[in-house]
Amino acid sequence: MFQEFRKSIQLILYERVTSPLSGAFIFSWFVWNWRIPYLLLFDNAPLPFSEKLNYVELKYLNPYFNFIYPILSALFLTTIYPFATTGILNIWLRFRVWQNTIKNKIEKNQLLTLEQSIQLRSELASQREQIAKLISSKDEEIRALVTQRDSVIDENNKLKQGPNVTSQAVVPQAFDSSRIRDAAIDQNRSAVLADLTTLAQKAQRYYFAPTVLTGGGNSFVGLTADAAGLGLLASTAFTDNASGTYTIKTAGTATTVVLHGVGKTALNDGTFPTYDMTVTADTFVATKIN
Q1: What distance in Å separates the CA atoms of residue 113 and residue 275, rounded to the nearest whole number?
Q2: 256: helix, strand or coil
Q3: What average pLDDT does the structure give for the chain?
């Protein structure tokens, strides 16, 4: 029981000492009455402790200095002082923002040196050359894919027309319509993937192109999931062609964009070939949905 009582007392004292008001009062009391502990504990005068105590009682025991002034100081430190410091901090931060704004304006209007101008022009020329090479290589890939797509469409149209009959007399063969349909579906899938690949490469071109050239500046954010975002990659003649219809499924972020393609050759269940294409700066991966 004594242990519990001692723990309770210790807990009460700890709460009192750690209280902001109590701590501020103790600090304020020592500021106003520092002479009392100094004379009683640290003064080396050859006097008995009782005489020191009488001297302190006579000279320094005062209700104003011992209680009223310390409690007023504690109230100031715990109420007014925090508001004052917060206000000063707010003013200081606003001044720093204003200072940075003026600095940025001055630096923006400051003319470049000859060496800086030459270096900047060299860097811009190098970037333009890299972008031109990248665009040229992507254009070649796109042309190859378009040729492949057109070939697939031609074969698909031939298959839809059915087997050709030559003018020479031949022995009739059994006509398997299901095989023709499966071949048409497979070729439509290939055409959809080819178109999605073309759009993915266009999205990568957009990613690497700087913003001054209506590019993303190392970001896909501008490729929004609507007609405006899709229009940055291709015209409606491409995004809704004989092979399929294409959209941006998930708007571009700093690192990825997801394209969506739906074919136009119906499957056996009445649905259509569907694919998603996840595009990053370096890769694009197709995912079969249907």
Answers
A1: 54
A2: coil
A3: 82
